[in-house]
Amino acid sequence: MKNLWSARDAKACIARCAIDGVGEDLALRVYTSRLLGGEPALVLHGGGNTSVKTRARAANGEELDVLCVKGSGWDLGAIEPAGLPAVRLEPLRELRKLDRLGDEEMINLQRGNLLDSAAPNPSVETLLHAFLPHKFIDHTHANAVLALTDQPDGEKICREVFGGRVALVPYVMPGFALAKACADIYERTPDVEGLILLKHGIFSFGGSARQAYKRMIELVNLAENRLNKGRKRIFVAVKLPGKLATPAEVAPILRGLLAIETDPGEGLHQRFLLSYRSSKKIQAYVGGSEVRRYAQAGTVTPDHAIRTKPWPAILPVPQAGKLDRFVGQAAKAIADYKARYAAYFARHNAKLGSAKTQLDAVPRVLLVPGLGLFAVGASARAAGIAGDLAETTVEVVSAAESIGRFTSIREADLFDIEYWSLEQAKLGRAEEAPLARHICAVTGGAGAIGRATAAVFARAGAEVVILDLPGKALEKAADELGALGIACDVTDDASVTDAFARIAETHGGLDILVSNAGAAWQGRIGEVSDAVLRRSFELNFFAHQRAGKAAVAIMLKQGTGGVLLFNASKQAVNPGPNFGPYGLPKAATLSLARQYAVDYGREGIRSNAVNADRIRSGLLTDEMVAARAKARKVSRKEYMRGNLLGLEVSAQDVGEAFLSLALARKTTGAVLTVDGGNIAAALR
Ligand code: ZN
């Protein structure tokens, strides 16, 4: 691992911070925290923490000693001075006199000593930083260090590798007791440069930011050098059948099996999103003959348990063409996992006087020999974090197995972390958005109506995927929402197949399709060429059918219902002169929406259409509005408001109409008019 300290960058950081009145100590603390946080082999997603002891001025003008320590919710890689709240140091140090201190009480005392009462909660490892004397303290969960300590003889290995440069601390759960243990051990060996917390991570410290950081890198390098002497071929591979199903085929099956039926009579499900990961290393790990031993031994560092649960589920091999068999085997593997998890909870909860509330028993990591792993979460973000932690697990366990045998903390210790009172306190607090845990694809997602619709669905909590022709517009639309954008030509079979496979591979499946892509062709019906008519049918009818078919195929695999939403047009029910080439396929699409409702209602798949008119978009440009207004001898504004309500209808209104249909759980085969009132286009 490289030491990335740069005197120039450090100076620049000091200068930048000075503009906001932030002093040199905190500026350098920010600088090296970012260096640590930028290296995934050291820390990931809020893992690790850092501190600096400095002086600060309280509101009453008094200058005092403070500890600026990482606040919870901040990532080291992107930390700002505000992410290192200042806590009065002396009152924290005094706590060391206590014999015990509960977690809630500790957090309360830490908060009570903040200089800024609006600052985030100081890290749960704050007292550990406070009890040690050093000015700068860095803490990471370095992969290489974990691979050495997560061994039956981890202590002995660490002594050999680090010699007297560090002191070793046996595993204690983070909190007051660990802070005291670390301070006691340090004071017996005050010359050390850091502490190795067995089966947890590493602390390094120093008088300057540069020294603490340099020591961290040097110590991690000692660990890496030791690992480099390990075996190169780590796992013995199991034999796999010749041809395997693809991740895109497997993901919706898994997603369906993981979904929790919350109200069976009502067809309600609590869904999860998936994040698929594969690499040579992951393949070797999941396909190893001893995967049931090393993958089930526990987490590589305790706090992963909160995101990944103590162990993953191990699934059968998905053979191509034999997915029916896979469904049965995978269902059993997941049911077994849930039973094991419930037993684990009951066992440990009983010892604690049944004080805890059980979390859902759904695995957060699925190992699929031959394919890789699928991480599971309540959102794409949560699944992504679990996926990153699972990849780190693969790294650490592989390295540990290359020099010995991976072991974790005891199951009771894993339980204490997973069911930490501070974590339990968060339960049930966050209310989910109506479409949270739902995946929604919008075709024509880069156009005016598509963009507005995608934004409306994203605001309702859905994980949105934007499909449109390749180009800047697609990139921009996806960027705006932070959504996945997929280049897709909905008039091309292969392009649609690929796009929906990518949705399934990226997020695990699909719950809502907004089939919106379209374009207008004109011509008097008796004179228009067949070629024009066929082209319009290709986009305004067959593309809807193609997308509908691809969506339904995924929804049927999931078995949790779904929603199809089609953009029909006013033309479908109220033809305008010379708009036959556009209106005819749209009329067919309106029938298509109803046909899906008829054919798939039994599977809980609803199908509805929106019937919009006079929306400014690629189909109705400003020039067209101007021309039509002129022809009718009205202003543009009057033209746009030429409806019963006298209101202009916007792309946003169309998006909201789609959303209302997505939420109307007992409505299918319906058409919702969004045109400000046009009695000629009213359905009868
Ligand atoms: Zn830690």
Can you describe this structure?
The chain has 684 residues and is α/β, with parallel strands linked by helices. The chain has 3 domains: 7-227, Class II aldolase/adducin N-terminal domain (L-fuculose-1-phosphate Aldolase, 3-Layer(aba) Sandwich); 247-427, 3-Layer(aba) Sandwich (L-fuculose-1-phosphate Aldolase); 439-681, NAD(P)-binding Rossmann-like Domain (Rossmann fold, 3-Layer(aba) Sandwich), CATH 3.40.50.720. The protein has 25 helices and 20 strands. The strands form 4 sheets. Strands 3-2-1-4-7-6-5 form a 7-stranded mixed sheet, with helices on both faces. The protein has a 7-stranded parallel sheet with strand order 16-15-14-17-18-19-20, with helices on both faces. A 4-stranded mixed sheet has the order 10-13-12-11. Helix 20 (493-507) packs parallel to helix 21 (530-558). The protein starts with 6 loop residues before the first helix and ends in a 10-residue tail after the last strand. The model has no long low-confidence stretch (mean pLDDT 95). The site of zinc ion has 5 residues, from loops.
Q: Give, in spatial order, the strands making up the sheet with the most strands.
A: 3-2-1-4-7-6-5
CATH class of the largest domain: Alpha Beta
State the distance separating the first and last CA atoms: 72 Å
Count the domains: 3
- CATH homologous superfamily placement of the largest domain: NAD(P)-binding Rossmann-like Domain
